[in-house]
Design brief:
Elements (H helix, E strand, L loop, with lengths): L2 H11 L3 E4 L8 E2 L15 H15 L16 H18 L4 E4 L6
Parallel strand pairs: 1-3
Antiparallel strand pairs: 1-2
Helix pairs in contact: 2-3
């Protein structure tokens, strides 16, 4: 294995990376390789983990995927995204050496 291949392997295995991104039935945080991250793997405060859980739950009750006449829980995207950005910033503040990525569904 070349040194370059070893470096790539190390990045995937030990990324110090988290992506904050909502997705149905997820907890809103993801590894570098796109796999779900267990909140216990994120070395932040329990309060920040609880805030992240509430934000993910907020997304999970959203039903924008339903036809308009069946929607009951419309998501306020402005408020939702503002909270997501604030959470990503709080994670970055708690883990300054980590790469923290915010992914905005409305801008994808």
């Amino acid at each position: 294995m070349s040194r370059h291949e070893e470096d790539e392997f190390e990045i995937v295995e030990n990324p110090d990376y988290v992506r904050v991104m909502p997705e149905y039935t997820s907890n809103g945080i993801w590894h570098f390789d796109g796999m779900h991250m267990d909140p216990e793997e994120l070395p932040v405060s329990d309060d920040l983990k609880a805030r992240l859980e509430q934000w993910a739950d907020w997304y999970n009750i959203n039903d924008d995927f339903n036809p308009p006449e069946e929607r009951r829980n419309r998501l306020d995207w402005t408020k939702f995204n503002a909270e997501g950005v604030a959470i990503a910033r709080a994670i970055k503040q708690a883990l300054p050496a980590w790469t923290v990525v915010w992914w905005d569904e409305k801008n994808s």
